[in-house]
Every structure is written in structure tokens, then in C-alpha cells.
Amino acid sequence: MTMKKTAITNVLIFDGSGGDLFQGEVVVAGERIVEVVRAPNRRQATVDEVIDGGGKFLMPGMTEAHTHFSWNDQPSLSAIQFMPPEEHILWCVEVAKRYLDMGFTSAIGAAEAKPRLDVVLRNAIAAGKVPGPRYLAGSQEITTLGGLGDNTLSHLQFDELNFGCVVSGPEEMRKAARRFIKYGVDQLKINLSGEYISGMPAELSPFSEEEIAMLAAEAKRHGKRVAAHARSSESVKQCIRHGFELIYHASFADEEALDMLEANKDKHFVGPGLGWLVRTSFNASAWGVTPAIAEKMGYHRELEIASASLRKMHQRGIRIAPGGDYGFAWMPHGTNATDLQYFVKYIGMTPKEALLSATRLGGEIMMRPDELGQVREGFIADVVLVDGDPLADLGILVDPDRIALVMKDGVIYKNLLNQQSQHSARIDRLTDEAAHEAVPA
Ligand SMILES: [Zn+2]
User: Fold this and answer.
1) Residue 170 CA, ligand 1 centroid: distance in Å
2) CB 100, CB 133: distance < 8 Å
């Protein structure tokens, strides 16, 4: 049996290698890219189908480094948690498609709102039952009594109210880790620091060393990575000491933490989740969090400090990946690529560096750098055709009308080339809100 061959011709190619853009065409056979041709050269292969890219911008599919599919675009963790499990998995299925339609072909699960949501979704996507990015499933957030994700009330001590999995002591940590590993997660998630909106300050690090060491030991025994909510400087250091690969936020990393990160930069990724800091600071008024309230909570100060430390991380060559905490009312799913604009504005990346962080670095964070994240011969055919030049305006990547074609594993999931306005009214509205955000100079 011969595989179907498709050529996407007449495109401007950003191949994710770090090199310059070039005019050319790409040939896909089955799930792989088999030729990347630079004009005026012509393809070698005889193809079954030719897609005229119409001069559009072809780039690798993007990776979301910190995804919560089960967050349901509500304004609080409790409102996410109160969704019944049956509706919740349907929600996850709907949202996963939204990511794919926005050009995200891979995603890392940074925590699920209920046990097994992520695993069930990952398996359904991998089996081709539902469309979505290839996915590495997360656990619930493992947290402490009173920490981020402990939503029980003092007079209503019901575990079911908890957004996270609350543990006390190494043995409970061991049990939680083994339970999520039993369910089949790819990475375990721990909340190593607080979070202003949860009531526990972001600079507080509530876990004991014994509890963290237990998680590290259990994860290693089973070959699982660990992802950490780590805003405080101490929590960043805990990640490095215990080998937790995925460090989320890292806002308050001090010079010692930066030195440790730099010395271990091949082991760790930092996912700052800047969208959360920016939008909570300036774009959440409609949900009662005015800029004045956000400032009082501590978010303006955290954004300022995070911006400074992330600039240093970028200069030191520490890997910084986009995405994070989309799925909240003021940062709905589908607007994730706004992070690339924040990377330019708050971290000092060039647009090209920002786009590489979403593509080539995505291959690395998915642990498949030799076949994901670039438009290159032999790589998996995850490609996105964009109407316009994202390097001139990264905002294009948040407009569903501009994401003209999405291919994952060589299969086309979205194609607007011959039809206009296929996007849903819902995404339209969300994008409009994103476009009205006011970010300070
Ligand atoms: Zn998160």
C-alpha cells in the first residue's frame, strides 16, 4: 500500500529551525513530512493532492506548555470544580478541538480539575476518537491544607469540594502520587507555592522537604515527570533540588535560583503563564477584579518582578515556554497565543524567539525534539498555515480566521482556504475581548 502524498505549495516557510523564512513547498506522506523544498527548486515526489497555500505563512504546529482543558472559562476555581463529571468530560472534548483549531497541535496537561479527566481525554485523542492536540496528561494539583486548590470550607470538610488533592505528610503524598500514576498520568502536578487569589501568598512555600522528596521518589520510580506551580523563589529551588522538570511561573526567582536554573537549563523548562498575571492585573474588571483590587492582591507587583526575572532567564538561555492557565473567565481557552505577545512585551523576546518558543521548544518540552516542533524532512507533519505574517504581528495567531489550515499527524483538521468564516461565534467574541485588553506601557 502506498501512502497518500500531499504537497502544500506556494507558501512562506518558518521551519522552526531558527533560520530565515523562505519561499517553497512541503510534501507530506502519511503522518510525516518527506520533503521541504526551497524555491525555485521543485519537489521530487509525485503527489496525489496539491494544496495551493496562496502565499500564506506555513509554520510548525504550536505547543501549549501548561494546559488546563478542564478549566471551564469560569471566574473561580470553585465554579470550575462544581461542574459535574459528565458535563466536565464533554467540556474537555469541546475545548481540545478549540486548541487544535487555533494551531496548537501539542499540549502539556498542567493539572485536571477532577481525577482522570486528562487521561481519558488524552487516550481519546490518541485513539483518534476526538480531535485535539497530542496531549501529555496531568494529575490533579497536589496541594497542602490551606494551599492553592484546597477549596473546602471549615464547616464543610468535603473532599469533593477540592479543586486539588490535599495531602499532609509523606505517606499521603506517596498515596496521591501512586493513585494518579495508577490512573495513567504522564506528569504529576504539585503546588509548591501559594497564589494570591487563593488566599495563600505567592511567596509562601507550604510543603515540607520530606513531602517533596517523597513525590520526587515516587515519580522517578515510575518514570514520570513532575510539574510544579512555583511562584516563590524557594519553590523554584525545590524544583531544581528535586529534579522537577516543568517549573510553572517562577516569578520571584532570586539570583541564587537563577544561578541554579542556569546550571541546570538542559533539565528544566520554565512556563511563566504570563497571561494570568497580565490579565488578572488589568483585564478582569468585568468579574469584579478591578486593576485596583488586583494591585492590592499583589498581582501588579508580581508582574513587575516576574518580568525582571524572566528577562534575566531569557538572557541566561533558560528555556521559557508559552501558555498557562487559560480557561479562566478573563483568559478563555483559544486565546493562548496571546502569550507570545506578552513574551515580547514583558520578557524582551524578539517575535521570532517567541514563535520558536511555541514551536521548536514545543518539540523539546513534549520530549520528542527529533520529530516535533519543526517543519523538516522526517518530522511529524504538524503544520499550520497562517493568513498573514505573525513575525510582523503576533496578534494574528489569536484570530481564528487567520489560522487558515491546521494539519496534525498529516491529517487536515481545519481548512479555511476555500471557505470563509467557518469559525464559531463564540471564539469570535473571545478574540474581540482579547483585542480590547489594555496592557500598561
Ligand atoms: Zn496552572
Assistant:
1) 23
2) yes
